[in-house]
Amino acid sequence: MPLIPEEPQIHESAQGPRATPATGRTASTPRPVPGPRPRPVPGPRSAATPRPGHPGPGPARPAPSERSQVSAERPAAAPEETRSVPQIQLIPASVDGALDAAEEAVDLLLDSGRAPGDILVLTTGEQHPWATHELSFGENSYWQQHDTGEDVFFADASAVDRAKARPVVVVALNGGDDGTVERVLPTARERAVALLVVCGDPQRVNSVLGAGV
């Protein structure tokens, strides 16, 4: 049955404070989460200090022409994390807005009580600035952070086979050809233990995952 786009929301049952809207939201009882391990960044930094739980900032990116907002509705009852097929949530977004939609989805998951180490973010186009920054220190250091599993980890779609399973996988369809999308989405579904969030063109997602949902 085709995957029908829903109003942007994250169906997640993680224990924690009820999430509030992505813009200007605050958690009623903020849960401290580990921040990124500090790294020296050459030259002056113009990026704002990241919210707790996000890996350190990378180079500033131009604002997208379209930004998909993630609703902060109360999470619905979630599936057991031991189930073999994860719940799939589609957040409609343009190519330019997919990465921002993915970041907002991560923020909502963290505000809802998800641990940073529960979340893996994959991009099909441009690398997330954090991944680009961390890779400048070498792949060994970069993947060590993945293996430690203490924080949100951002990776390119080409690295999906190396990425380990996590409770939540967020995919940003921010570029890439059809072959990349057709390869990364099924693998991302395998890596997601409880929830797969896909930010991108609904028709493109349905063409790959629709028959399996």
What does this structure look like?
- The protein is an alpha/beta fold.
- It is 25% helix and 15% strand.
- The protein contains 5 helices and 5 strands; from the N terminus they run βαβααββαβα.
- Strands 1-5-4-2-3 form a 5-stranded parallel beta sheet.
- β4, α4 and β5 form a beta-alpha-beta unit.
- α4 (178-191) packs across α5 (202-209).
Give the overall average pLDDT: 74
Q: How many DSSP-defined strands?
A: 5
Helix percent reads 10-25%
Class per helix and strand makeup:
alpha/beta
Query: Oligomeric status of the shown chains?
Result: single chain
Low-pLDDT segments: 13-52, 59-83
Helix and strand pattern? EHEHHEEHEH
| Physical arrangement of strands within the biggest beta sheet | 1-5-4-2-3
The outline comes out as globular
Largest sheet: 5 strands, parallel
Number of helices: 5
Distance between the termini: 6 Å
Radius of gyration: 16 Å
